[in-house]
Structures are given as C-alpha cells and as structure tokens.
C-alpha cells in the first residue's frame, strides 16, 4: 500500500477554490501550495500518460510490481460550467482517429464511463425519444429553423435513426452567425415566458446560455435527455452516447483513455465530421447503475469489465476487513482510520495491491473511502 501523488486539472469549467470538492480534498490532504483563485476541475487518479499518479517511491504504478498495469482512470470532477457536448469513440473508431489525428486523439482505447454523483448532478445524456424530438420540432419554431426546414420536416414525417443523423449534421454544420441569431431568438422567447419547460430543462437552458451564449448547444436540451441525479446515483455512459455534464460534483471511472469527440460548447477542438461515425443515433434511456450492498461495501458495477467504483463505509469505532481482487486506487472522503497500520485522512489517495486490507476506525464518525478497480 502506498500514498499516491495525483494531479489536479485547472480547466476553466471547474469550480473555483474552496467551492470545488477537488480543492477541498487537496486542502484536507495537507497541500499548502493551492491557488484559491483558480478553478479545480478534476483530480486524476491512475496511470494515464497525460497525468500519471506517483507512488511514495517516485515510481508510476505500472513500474512497480506490486500494482502493474492499471487499465482504468479514476477521477473526481467539480463542474461549475457545462462541459462540451461530446461523445467517446468505440474501440474501432478510436484506433482510426488515433491513426489520423494523434494530437487530438492521443490513444487507441475506447472510453466508456461511469459517473457517481457526490452532490446533485445535472447532465445531458443520449437522445430523447423520436416522438419527443418530433414534438419539439413542431412546438418550437426556432429548433426547426436552426435545423433547416427541409431536414426538420423530413424527420417529422419519418422519425428514425437515419433522419436523426441528418438532423444533427444539419444543425452542427450551420454557419455560426446563423446559429447565434436563432439561439438568441429562442432565448428571448424563453425569457419572456412564451415557452414553458420542466425546471430541469429550463436550468439547462440557463446554464448553457450563461456560459455559451449563441452556441449551438442551446438547442441540445430539446434533442438530448436532461437528467438530474441525486447524491449516490450512478450512470453508465457507453461509447457512442452524446452527453455533457452541466453542474455538480462526481466520481468518474473510465477505460484508460482521453479520447473525446466534441460537438459544441467548448473553446477546444471541435470535430463535427467525426460525430456521424461515432454517435449512436438511437433514443437512449439513461443507464442507471444500481448499487449492490454488502456489509461495509456498496458496489457500482457497470457492464464494462475494466472498472467499477465502491464505497467502503466503516461505522464509528468498528473494524472491517475488505478484499480486493485486483490493484485498487482509493480516495478518503470522510473520517480518519488506520488502514493496514497506516493512518489515513480526508483527501489522501492510496494505491492498494491485490489482497485484503484491515480498516480500524477509532473515531466517532463514519470512515468512507471511495475506490476504483477492475470488476473482472
């Protein structure tokens, strides 16, 4: 078992300073060189080349025989501004994209993900039903105008996957000035109260318009599902699913990859041409991962074999023995305890070899560690 030194990412969409859960974890762990005026968006835990975690002996995980190759990446995210509308490529597409453009697609891995909400989490996730999209096209003139009347009418007459792909292509390839003008028309009607939406959809419009005024992303709450997750809820996001986190704190586990195909709401590289090859153009019901609970352990196990997330919860003044079948990364969320004789506190991150650990909680509050490891 070893402490891990992990890297924080200061992307501009992150929460700033002490409002960020990432910042709070780092501060509690004893870091003193934190700039509270900066956003703290992500904490990377694992062995990705972009930001590898380092063991207390200075080695990377893959270079220490106790741990070896770890094929997952574990993150903590603190989202203040909407992230880009994005999709992660399946394996075959990832190989092709990396070969063509290794700068923007730095590896050959697919990137399915699982998110576990720490606070209330809102996001866009997968396409609405064909019937809902058809209804919104006929109900909101600005959506039909942004798509283009011919393409919009074609979808209304024949709502299917082929025409949904045409709809998204038409929307994304429109000139930016045209989209900006139509977006402003839509926002004006929303502000005047001429259009009425569920609170979650209205919140999505508000966030997108606040941070990305005039962006094509303003139309996507009418095309994608708007999802709100309570703390402790988990969603699996397979490759091929358009999505965008809007606000909240979360743990995220994924295959070891940083491949992202972006469609909007970002100053980063946008690759509209690859969207059609990558996106699964069928309606999606958000894939909720129900936890499996045993004594001391709550497990979130997605269908992908490379990763899972578990909460280890040891009540006050109790002792627990937990076994891991593969190398594990753990972050301490609450409390103080002795783990295999090592005192751990909030914000500490550990690499734990395969095998048993003993956790002794001598405090008067629960001890909670959140861990990520392979689920096969």
UniProtKB/TrEMBL annotation:
Binding site for Zn(2+): 86, 88, 113, 243
Cellular component, GO annotation: cytosol
Start and end residues of each Phosphomannose isomerase type I catalytic domain: 4-129
Cofactor requirement: Zn(2+)
E.C. number(s) listed in UniProt: 5.3.1.8
Domain of life where this protein originates: Eukaryota
SUPFAM superfamilies: RmlC-like cupins
Keywords recorded for this protein, A-Z: Isomerase, Metal-binding, Zinc
Transmembrane feature ranges: none
Positions of the catalytic residues: 262
Pathway recorded for this protein: Nucleotide-sugar biosynthesis; GDP-alpha-D-mannose biosynthesis; alpha-D-mannose 1-phosphate from D-fructose 6-phosphate: step 1/2
InterPro entries: Man6P_Isoase-1, Mannose-6-P_Isomerase, PMI_typeI_cat, RmlC-like_jellyroll, RmlC_Cupin_sf
Pfam families per UniProt: PMI_typeI_cat (PF20511)
Molecular-function annotations in GO: mannose-6-phosphate isomerase activity; zinc ion binding
Entry's cofactor comment: Binds 1 zinc ion per subunit.
Reactions catalysed, as given in the entry: D-mannose 6-phosphate = D-fructose 6-phosphate
CDD domains listed in its UniProt record: cupin_PMI_type_I_N (cd07011)
Group of enzyme by EC: isomerase
GO BP terms, alphabetized: carbohydrate metabolic process; GDP-mannose biosynthetic process
Family to which this protein belongs: Belongs to the mannose-6-phosphate isomerase type 1 family.
Name assigned to this protein: mannose-6-phosphate isomerase
């Amino acid at each position: 078992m070893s402490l891990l030194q992990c890297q924080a990412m200061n992307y501009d969409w992150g929460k700033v300073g002490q409002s960020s859960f990432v910042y709070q974890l780092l501060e509690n762990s004893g870091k003193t060189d934190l700039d509270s005026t900066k956003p703290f968006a992500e904490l990377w835990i694992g062995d990705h080349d972009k930001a590898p975690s380092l063991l207390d002996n200075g080695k990377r995980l893959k270079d220490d025989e106790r741990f070896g190759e770890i094929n997952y990446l574990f993150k903590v995210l603190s989202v203040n501004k909407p992230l880009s509308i994005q999709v992660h490529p399946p394996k075959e597409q990832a190989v092709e994209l990396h070969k063509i453009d290794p700068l923007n697609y730095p590896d050959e891995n697919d990137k399915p993900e699982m998110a576990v909400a720490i606070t209330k989490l809102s996001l866009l996730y997968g396409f609405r039903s064909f019937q809902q999209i058809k209804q919104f096209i006929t109900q909101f003139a600005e959506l039909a105008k942004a798509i283009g009347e011919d393409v919009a009418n074609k979808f209304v007459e024949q709502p299917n996957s082929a025409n949904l792909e045409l709809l998204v292509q038409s929307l994304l390839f429109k000139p930016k000035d045209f989209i900006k003008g139509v977006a402003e028309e839509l926002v004006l009607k929303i502000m005047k109260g001429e259009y009425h939406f569920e609170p979650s959809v209205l919140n999505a419009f508000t966030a997108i318009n606040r941070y990305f005024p005039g962006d094509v992303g303003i139309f996507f709450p009418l095309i994608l599902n708007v999802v709100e997750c309570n703390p402790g809820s988990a969603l699996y996001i397979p490759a091929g699913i358009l999505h965008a986190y809007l606000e909240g704190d979360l743990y995220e586990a994924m295959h070891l990859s940083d491949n992202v195909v972006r469609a909007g709401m970002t100053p980063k590289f946008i690759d509209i041409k690859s969207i059609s090859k990558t996106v699964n153009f069928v309606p999606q019901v958000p894939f909720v991962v129900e936890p499996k609970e045993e004594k001391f352990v709550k497990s979130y196990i997605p269908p992908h074999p490379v990763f899972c997330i578990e909460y280890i919860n040891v009540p006050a003044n109790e002792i627990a023995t937990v076994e891991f079948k593969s190398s594990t990364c753990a972050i301490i969320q609450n409390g103080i305890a002795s783990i295999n004789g090592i005192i751990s506190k909030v914000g500490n991150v550990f690499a734990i070899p395969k095998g048993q650990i003993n956790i002794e909680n001598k405090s008067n509050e629960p001890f909670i560690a959140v861990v990520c490891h392979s689920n096969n």
